[in-house]
Amino acid sequence: MLKTILTIGFIALVGLFALNFIFGIFGLMFGLLVALLGVAIKIALIGLVLYFIIRIISPDTARRMREKFGA
């Protein structure tokens, strides 16, 4: 599950850099990248916290999630 979360985070970062490149051509500020990066980090942290809560409360559900989403 951690591998999946890190992969999603990596893909989000690549997408953010691509957006920064595209919008940089059109003259938008670097602040857009920082704002999107902040949102991506918050979403990843929320997902990580929710996964660990599920893992503590219901280990069987966490196991099924790992099997379903790979890891």
How does this model look, in words?
This protein has 71 residues and is an all-alpha fold. The protein is built from three helices and no strands. The chain has helices at residues 2-25, 31-57, 59-69. The longest helix has 27 residues, at 31-57. The model has no long low-confidence stretch (mean pLDDT 80).
> What is the helical fraction, as a range of percent?
over 70%
Number of strands: 0
Tell me what portion of residues adopts beta-strand conformation: under 5%
What composes the largest sheet?
none
Mean pLDDT: 80
pLDDT < 50 stretches: none
Shape: elongated
Going by helix content, strand content and strand pairing, the class is mainly alpha
End-to-end C-alpha gap: 5 Å
H/E order of the elements? HHH
Number of helices: 3
Report the radius of gyration as a whole number of Å: 16 Å
Q: Which features would summarize this protein structure in a list?
A:
mainly alpha; 3 helices; elongated
Quick recap:
The chain has helices spanning 2-25, 31-57, 59-69. By secondary structure, it is mostly helical.
Helices and strands, with pairings:
Elements: H1 2-25, H2 31-57, H3 59-69
Helix pairs in contact: 1-2, 2-3
